[in-house]
Structures are given as C-alpha cells and as structure tokens.
Amino acid sequence: MAENTAPTPAAAPPVPDNQQPLQEDPDTGLPKGFGPGAAPAAEPTVAPQPPPPQEQQSNEPNVEAVIPDGCPPEIVALAPYLPAGLTLKQIWDWKKQFGAVYFVDICDTFYFYRAMSKPEYKGIMNIENATREIQEEKITELCTLFPKVSVQNLRLGLAGLASSMAEYIMRASAFGSLATPTKL
C-alpha cells in the first residue's frame, strides 16, 4: 500500500518587518498598534504638490478700464467691477452683436451671457438622446460669453453651475417669463 504523502510546501521567503501580518490584540480585538494607547502612526511621506493653476478670472476691480466712444452709461458703470481679462469695449461689442448682455455673480465669479435664439434652442433640443443635463451644459457653453466655458470644464467644476446658468439664459431668452398677464 502506498502512503498518501502530500508534497511539502517550499519555505516562504522572509517577510520584511514592515510587511508582517497584523496580529490581533486579544483585549481590544483590534490589530496590535491600533486603538486606545497605541503609538501614533508615523506621518506618511508626501511629495510636495505644485501650487494650483492661477484662475483666469479675478474679481479685482479693473481701474484702468478704457471707455469706448458711444458706450452707454449702463456699461460704463461696470468699469470699477470688471474682472481681469474683460474690457468695456468687449461688452460693448457683445451688446452690438447680440442686442443684450447680462451678467450674474455665482460664487464670487461674474458670468457674462447672452440670450439664445429660437434656432439655437431647437438645435440643442433636437440633439439625439440628450439628457436635460447635457442640454443645460450645451446652452451654457453656447451662451456664456465670459469667462469662456466648455462642457468638459462644466463637468469638472461646480455641480450646479450649468443648471443655474442655463436657467438664467433661458429667462433672458423669454422662457419661463415671470410677467403677470393683464386681464382686459
């Protein structure tokens, strides 16, 4: 009769001290070195991180604003509040191009935008399989004049920015008008 012998396992290589399996403390049930009275863990070494990229927009007043000829007073009044990178001339040019320019302060950033035309609206609404979120992102990307936004940036930024901007743009485009009708 042959004896049933299992092969003997090869000896495991030695495990470095910092990789030894944790042994449980019988009093606390936690791994040894954890829980009350345990020595604090060593601070992990973290490589220094580069500073975050500078924002393209600053809400510091633009005191060197140049007033273009013929610029209406409502635009000139914005001069002390213009974010860096935006000029009165640019706003005046947009006003001439689009008829109306709006701005709103969202989380300490001024967003300048325009209304949407009916063909632009229909084009966005006819995007196949577009969810409301995608439609809001497209509306915001299309109509936000400053700072320039993209769908990708909207997805990485504040969660509600596209939704809020799309709502402002839709109101400027006469959707959801809050005017009360007058009964004759």
Q: How would you portray this structure in words?
A:
This protein has 184 residues and is mainly alpha-helical. Among the domains are: 63-99, no CATH class; 115-172, no CATH class. It contains six helices and three strands; from the N terminus they run H-H-E-E-H-H-E-H-H. The chain has helices at 73-76, 88-98, 118-125, 132-143, 151-156, 161-172, and strands at residues 102-106, 109-113, 144-146. A three-stranded antiparallel sheet has the order 1-2-3. A hairpin with a 2-residue loop joins strand 1 (102-106) and strand 2 (109-113). Helix 4 crosses helix 6. The protein is globular. The chain starts with 72 loop residues before the first helix and ends in a 12-residue tail after the last helix. The model is unreliable at 15-22 and 38-59 (pLDDT under 50).
Summarize the structure.
The chain has 184 residues and is mainly alpha-helical. It has helices at 73-76, 88-98, 118-125, 132-143, 151-156, 161-172; strands at 102-106, 109-113, 144-146.
Mean of the pLDDT scores?
A: 76
Measure the end-to-end span. Answer: 112 Å
Helical residue percent band: 25-40%
Shape by Cα distribution:
globular
- Element pattern in H and E: HHEEHHEHH
Which structural class best describes the helix and strand composition?
A: mainly alpha
Low-confidence stretches: 15-22, 38-59
- The share of residues in extended strands comes to 5-15%
**How many individual β-strands?**
3
Strand order of the largest sheet: 1-2-3
Largest sheet: 3 strands, antiparallel
DSSP summary: helix tally: 6
